[in-house]
Design a protein that fits this description.
Elongation Factor Tu (Ef-tu), domain 3; 2 domains; CIS_tube_prot_N; two-stranded antiparallel ribbon; single chain; alpha+beta; 4 helices
Length: 230
């Protein structure tokens, strides 16, 4: 049976790459019973304080896509040090916790931050690159000398991504780049705003940015600037 693995990674040439070797890999001896993988999207125009939320003349706010939220992953695993789990025989619970911490939690002096990790589990969870945001250890079985023989760990991760990876995936287009557009016959400012931002309500702001006396009659061949907007 495939075991869940948490692998130490490094950022190299703008990419997150896993590190080889057993010292860089934590392998769960008892797989999680389940895991949660969360995805989210953000929309502007619907929250409190938004310029369009509750605007006069609008029966309801209009949601405009703003960005994707970072993916999240969380699960729990059990560590055993009693010797009944063959893969963990001879390895104490404390040693297992220390190894996991060294890979996913401890501060890396060279990188000036904890390292990102890759979480994999068979064919279901092929590769989640993330950073550990929370680690909770509940000890629930003990040796007579007080050392822990079993523990349940709860782990929370948030997606890790470099600026270069984010830019490549986003393939930044309309609202995320400054556009210089030459006015053509028949163009109107609301029409151009719809084309660039998918939002006609930006036309007054664009008129201000381009110091236009009027937004109604655009002179053909005029060069207009459309900066990034949310």
């Amino acid at each position: 049976m495939a075991k869940l693995k948490i692998i130490r990674c490094k950022i190299q040439n703008g990419q997150i790459k896993e590190q080889k070797g057993t010292a860089n890999t934590f392998e769960a001896t008892i797989n999680p019973q389940d895991y949660s993988h969360t995805f989210g999207l953000k929309y502007s125009g619907t929250g409190e304080g938004s310029s369009t939320a509750g605007a006069l003349g609008k029966s309801a706010p209009v949601a405009k896509f703003a960005s994707s939220e970072a993916e999240k992953l969380n699960f729990s695993i059990v560590l055993d040090g009693t010797g009944v789990v063959p893969d963990a025989a001879g390895v104490t619970v404390a040693e297992q916790v220390d190894k996991l911490r060294s890979i996913a939690y401890d501060y890396d002096g060279d990188e000036h931050e904890p390292t990102p990790v890759k979480v994999v589990w068979g064919k279901g969870l092929k590769a989640f690159f993330g950073r550990l945001t929370s680690l909770s250890v509940d000890y629930n079985l003990f040796h007579p000398d007080g050392s822990a023989l079993r523990a349940k760990l709860k782990l929370d991760f948030v997606e890790a991504k470099t600026d270069a990876e984010e830019a490549r995936e986003a393939k930044r287009k309309s609202p995320d780049m400054t556009h210089m557009i030459r006015v053509q016959e028949g163009d109107t400012l609301p029409l151009l705003c719809q084309r660039v931002y998918k939002d006609v309500t930006k036309y007054l702001e664009i008129a201000r940015i381009n110091e236009l006396d009027t937004f109604r009659d655009l002179e053909p061949n005029t060069l207009l600037r459309f900066p990034p907007m949310r």
